[in-house]
Amino acid sequence: MKRKYFYSTAVVSFAVLVSAIFGTSSYNANAAPINRSIHVNGTSLLKVNDYDVLYCTPIGPYVNEEKRLMVPLRSVAELLGAKVDYNTKLQEAKIRWRSNEIVFQKGAKTYKLNDTLAQMDTQPEVIQDAFVIPLGVLLRSMNIPFEYRNNKVILKNPSFDQSKIFQKVIEADRGSFILDNPSALDIQNFRLVEEKNSAGETRGSITESGLNRTGSTIREGKEDLHIICLFNQTLDMDADFASIDIPDRKRPKVNPEDSVSQSLSYLKINDDPLQYILTAGRTLKTKNERK
């Protein structure tokens, strides 16, 4: 059973390193704009602080034909706490983060960084009216620190937790307050399916796996592969604590280099579209460890 939370919407060489960072994984997705159906078989490509970003509307992180990691601009900007403005007449997007400002234009392989024209080897795409940009250009241009580990781009900065999206997630995610190891499980493959039927109901499910990379056994009762689905108005996740009507789920022992899987299903009757799927691959302190 789930708890539901409601909120208001409001190098070798550097070139070789970047090529490796933004072109080694695959993401296969079909997100039909007519009925908003989503069918994704993918691998986790992006992590921000303690949460892997598996999906952000209208399409999750993916690698394009030029082998560059692409992300929906507005969704990622909201996660990082950046500001985005669109000019529909010019078909351009302006992003501001701290003292930097970058402007992307649809179909252009150039962009402006603080009014200085710069070149990139791929171009922004528009998917379902959303700007989708090369993440590497955004990170390097705005001096956002990142690292590449286990075929995944990892962004870590305390300021990201101050974004409106992460503030809502952290407030609702009670397990984040009893963390033992926030990165015990490396999120691997996932499958996301969402369909809207003729009655106007939206049914979705996500199944994913996490690999124990700690080098030691995760004892029974500590594993927490935690899925969070954020919608336009609501938030769904598994309960991290047992209560009168919600028992604690079984948390198995996980041997080194073994995987554990977890699933979450949801049903939406009203129009409340999926915005993000975030996952924490962690271990929690047991009751005895919290004493």
Automatic annotation (TrEMBL):
The keyword Oxidoreductase does not apply. Pfam families: Cu_amine_oxidN1. Residues 1-31 form the signal peptide. The keyword Nucleotide-binding does not apply. Residues 60-152 form the Copper amine oxidase-like N-terminal domain. Keywords: Signal. InterPro entries: Cu_amine_oxidase-like_N, Mao_N_sf. It comes from the Bacteria. This is Copper amine oxidase N-terminal domain-containing protein. It comes from Paenibacillus ottowii. The lineage of its organism: Bacteria, Bacillati, Bacillota, Bacilli, Bacillales.
